Amino acid sequence: MTLECVVSEDDGIVAIHGLYQGQTETWTDPETRTFWLRDLLPNLLPKARIMTYGYKADALYSAGEGSSDRILPHALTLIADLYADRLAASAVERPIIFICHGLGGILVKRALVSSNTSKSKQVEHRRSIFTSTYAILFLSTPHHGLSPETIQDPTSPKPSQLLASLAKGSEVLRDIDDQFAPLTKRFSIYCFWEQLESNFGKAKRYIVDEGSAAPAWDNFERSGIFADHSGMCKFSNTRDAGFKVIFAALKRYTQDAPKVVRRRWLEDRALLAEERGVEARELLRHDSDLSNSDSPIAKANKYFTVPRSASSMFTGRSDIARALRQKIISTRVQDGHHQHKIFVLYGLGGSGKTQFCLKFVEDNRESFWGIFWIDASNDQNAEAGFAYLGSLAKKDTTFEAGKHWLSNCSKSWLLVIDNADDPEMDVSRYFPSGGRGHILITTRNPNNVVHSTIGDVNFRGMEQEDAITLLLKAANRPECMDLGQREIARPIVTTLGHLALALTHAGAAIRRNIYTLEGYLPEYCEHRREMMRQDNLRSADSYKLNIITTWELPYEQIKQRGTTSAKDAIEILHIFAFLHFEQIPVVMFQKAWNNMRDSSASASPSMPRFLRGLWPAIPGAKKYPLPAILSQVGPIWDWPRFNRAIGQLSDYSLIDRDDKNGLCSMHPVVHAWARDRLQPEEQRHLLGVAATVLANSITSELESSGRNYRRALIPHIDSCLQGKNAELLGYDKDSFHASNAIKFASVYAEAGRWIIARGIQRKVVNFRKKTLGSGHPETLKAMIYLGRTCWNLFSMKETLEVQLSVHSTMEKTLGKTNPETLKAMDDLVQTYWLVGNRKKSQELALKAVHGLKETLGHVDPATLTAMHNLGRSYLHLAQPEKAQELLSQVLESRQRLFGIKHPDTQMTMTDLAMSYLALKRLPEAEKLTSDTLRARKHIHGEEHAYTLWSVNDLSKIYCAQGRTDEAIKSLEGILPTVLRTLGNTHIGVSMTKFNLSRAYIGQERWKDAERVLKEQQENLNPNHPDFIHSVAELGKVLKEQGDLAEAERCFLDATEAIIKTQAIGLDHPVTRNIVRQLTEIYKEQGRLEEIRELEVKMALGVG
């Protein structure tokens, strides 16, 4: 990284180059050698301090997990270098104007995002770059990515990882855009695009097209420059048209910047002063807590996982809040108290139970170390809520991990179990064990009162005066205490049964001037009478009619408008009705639109462009007309149009908006109304539309940068696939929805919900076999996914059946040397390795590696996977030299392509470390394993299977180093977790017990080793190599204790297994050790003839 000052005066202009040319070459005319930033601009802007910033583009070009993690370090370095230069010049508050070419613009956007978030005292100096930035000139920056043709390097069969991450629709670019978008209003931004095509191999094309370089964003300036991508930032004289337009912009910006930036610095100082004040108060509170450590309630809140804020219109219930505070907070926990404090709030939907809890936790946040919110509308969502707590605690993203964390937490926590309405649900399943917790339950099911330990309350209608106040607040009547207004409101609240939700919606209708306060009740009553004439509502009770009528009034008003926004609003509401009612990410619509648009190029040309990517070419696929907002054409997603639509829904209180986090929610009762008001055929159709939008917001590649987004979709996928909806959707009967379901299954699998994923994949596979045939590409793709899921569930019989079928079919239809056939063969390599057939694994691995190298090249990800699997086979066949050589090659390539944090890279590090261990290169083995363990803890959590695997590997190294105390401590520490999270029959349990026995042996704790080995063998397959290893170790332990007869039996069982299964070779170190141990026993007992028989037997390899 270099920062070079071209001319130094006052205002700061910083020029940042792109990917293909350097710090000076980018801005220099090749014929005249005019470096315009130095030779032309200073004469016209004499007070400007002009600098160029350089970075090693090749470092970006060659490595990085999706390259997102490679852009960030460069962005942070840019901030650090720029701040250091400005500090040295005593010019920290000088305005900044960035000029960026190509990738340099992405770097600046990422830097400004990071600078904006630097508010803590330790890093607040970095925020100065954000505060001082006034303007940005983007010269062909690929905001929306590069075309597939552009990212393909003519010299390579595959694009670099960085270029792939810059493709149109890339999650990396979208993530950066999403973070940068809220900041754009602070800057003056000018986007330029190239108007001439560049030479690209034998063809000509635009490197960055206009739509990507100069999106039609609001309040942005746009202009073309008559030059190609490289030439648009090179000028030989001031008469050049491109120079003129850039200079004109710079002149305006340098004139306007000082005043604006000075004001921003004043505002920012006030903001940071407030931040320091908050930190000081936190510190004082922490000190106070330390000095009152005997208090049963922690006074410093660390965790607050609450889905949204309480409504600003919340009114009343203060008597219940006071009583609850007294019961749940003020009462001291007695020593020996072993019962959670559980309080149940039950009553009608819409009576305000959830809003009460939201307000209560906000008001009492500092009384608890942690406040956690669980959506218990169904078991899947409740389990997902605890899984999130597990990841929050850096344990594992599973239901058991989250629940176990709270069960063993000694600090004071409050758990809200919300919407536990299903009478079939066992709510007590979601109570952590122990007795120091505090739990609030909201439910419509009065039977849940049995779980209360400190009381309950029946939420009916509000007190009348509180209800009147709420209605007038919702109607935006500031004179809510005016007696005349209250008297007009009184009959309305009486008619609506004093229900909080109905009152809020009535108030919204009045606030929006649909009706006056005086005119609302007559209109309401008339509409209610009309609804009672409907067949499906004639028998409805007063509560249901009150609720439905308050929503039907604004719904009909929106519908009758007939405007584009109104039509969009109704269609979006219908989609929301089939998703989960909480935390609906609005970016889902943008992602779906982008992915459909980007995939349309390969679809049928006869279909409208924006729909081509939706319809797989499968016989019988149904066409579901999409919402009009998703049928829009244009270079970018129309956020203003979308916001106008959801704004109408929000204004009428049909949805809640959380603009800060980009989420929408619906009250469960409103959500049910929006769905139940539809006829069965309408429900079937709109469920299909919702599932289609949801599925198309997920990219097929499942990029790592989108992992958090996909995890957030799981409740919405659950909503589409569970219960009645699964039957309506019919993904196992409809080709189109089968394609969506396969995507949903991939998201479940990524989140570790393997059993659910397998269930979906099995149904889709069976359906596709019936309708398309076993050899159809879509059937084979579904089978490949199913095989991998079964592999992760250690269902080896089904895995082999599926993978053998896929490989056999592909050999027949595609040929033996087709890359897809070879990839299917490599899937079998992993499976044979896991079931212990190491020779078969090695045999297939050699073929897969050779074939994939020939067809895809040495550094294709599929080739690297095959090489890794071959290296692992070498390792387990006692060929560590070959393993180490091959795995080192794979690691180097994977680090360069994916970065060190990628799961595939970490797996290679794991196996390479074990090859170092086998070669007695212990320092290298320890470093590699420690690095992997540290990374896995950070990424997956302490209790994830991969993290526990690394603990096992490190214990082996400790034993080899004679550090058996450390090995035993770590393995005994994780064994309860392994048993709890993986189950007693899981291979991870067997591995942990075997390694623990080896550590005990190292300390000559023979009885402990014998006990653990016998436990391990109870769940081992006698034909698996692990069984042979375990029996051999047990024989050694028994021999050391003098039990030669039992030791001999173990060694003979092991030799029989070796000869019978050939799971390990006769020349394997374990085999040789078994023979040596038996020989010693025979010699000690004078059984020389049996020694000769043993030698013959092992030489011939016969039992």
From TrEMBL:
The lineage of its organism: Eukaryota, Fungi, Dikarya, Ascomycota, Pezizomycotina. SUPFAM superfamilies: alpha/beta-Hydrolases, P-loop containing nucleoside triphosphate hydrolases, TPR-like. It holds the Pfam family TPR_10. InterPro entries: AB_hydrolase_fold, NLR-like, P-loop_NTPase, TPR-like_helical_dom_sf. This is Kinesin light chain. It comes from Glutinoglossum americanum.
